[in-house]
Each structure stands twice: as structure tokens, then as C-alpha cells.
Amino acid sequence: SRHLDDKVSVALLVELVENIHRNQIDLAHTTHFYISTNEEIGYGGNSNIASEVKEYLAVDMGAMGDDQRTDEYSVSICAKDGSGPYHLGLRNQFVQLCKANDIEYQLDIYPFYSSDASAAMRAGADVRHGLIGAGIDSSHAYERTHFESVDATYELIASYLESEMID
């Protein structure tokens, strides 16, 4: 398909919202969902962030490529991108959740990439920020991924939403 980063991410968030309403996911905290249409140009999800928001999780894609660890069978956890490092405590929480729940994951760095969480930080948001996503091959071409990667991403987000904030 084309634009799987957006399609997969939105589908995951819609599924999560449906499962929250079905009481299949118990939220540990008040949670806001925001779907941005401007992420690709660097000023996506950075407006209207409520002052009580403590963490900002961007769900996008794990871009596959030369010198990347990301694959199309696991969730990608971004440690750093072109905007700088993501919050270490939040990244470590994602890794702990993956290990505790047997979720396949890869840690990666994307030097030519940024996310809505990066845009929020540039706009001055005082939040712990993180970026995860399904591993997707051939970004902005005819892209592909596997159900295992989408499922792993869903499981990490659901586990995160049910978990307490840790440092």
C-alpha cells in the first residue's frame, strides 16, 4: 500500500479507542488521542496540548533501511531522531513493557526523521515524549509491513496505556 505509516497508526488508535469503550483496556491515566494531518511538515501535534498532560506518545512508523535495526515483524521504539533524543525514562518503560509482555521490539535511531512528539518539544511542551511504530519498508513508496509488527505495536500501546508512569 501507500502511506502505511498513517494508515496503520490511525487504525491502531481507532482500535484502541474502540477497545477502551468496550472496557477491554483499563486506562491508568486520563488519555487524549490526537490525529495530526501535519506531521510530515514538522508542526503536527503541538497545539492544544492540555497543561495537565505529562507524557506524549507519537505513533508513527519504524522506517527500515540501511544501518537500521527496525524490521517488519516487531514494534520499533525510537531512541533518537533528527530532533534529538527521546525521553530516556519513557523509552526504558517501553522496553520494560515489551520484555514483561513478550512483545517483539527493536530500538532504533532515525537521524533524518522527526515526529509530532518532536514538534511538541520544539513548541515548548513540558512532557516526557516518545515515538513508537510498526516497522514499515519502503517509506513513501509502495510500502509493506507484516501483521506481527502491527500486533506488536498495538500490544505495546495497550500495555503502556494500562501502566503507571515510571522514571
Structural summary, described in words:
The structure is a single chain. Strands 1, 2, 3, 4 and 5 form a 5-stranded mixed β-sheet that branches. The mean pLDDT is 89. With 167 residues, the protein is α/β, with parallel strands linked by helices. The longest helix is centred in the first third of the chain and has 18 residues, at 4-21. The protein is built from 4 helices and 5 strands, in the order αβββαβαβα. A hairpin with a 2-residue loop joins strand 2 and strand 3 (84-85). The radius of gyration is 15 Å and the shape is globular.
The end-to-end distance, rounded to whole angstroms, is 38 Å
Mean pLDDT: 89
Gross geometry: globular
Number of strands: 5
Structural class: alpha/beta
* Cα-based radius of gyration, to the nearest Å: 15 Å
Quaternary structure type = single chain
Question: How is the secondary structure organized here?
Answer:
Blueprint: H1 4-21, E1 55-63, E2 75-81, E3 84-85, H2 88-100, E4 105-110, H3 116-122, E5 128-136, H4 147-162
Parallel strand pairs: 1-5, 2-4
Antiparallel strand pairs: 2-3, 2-5
Short description:
The chain has helices at residues 4-21, 88-100, 116-122, 147-162; strands at residues 55-63, 75-81, 84-85, 105-110, 128-136.
Characteristic key phrases:
single chain; 167 residues; 5-stranded mixed β-sheet
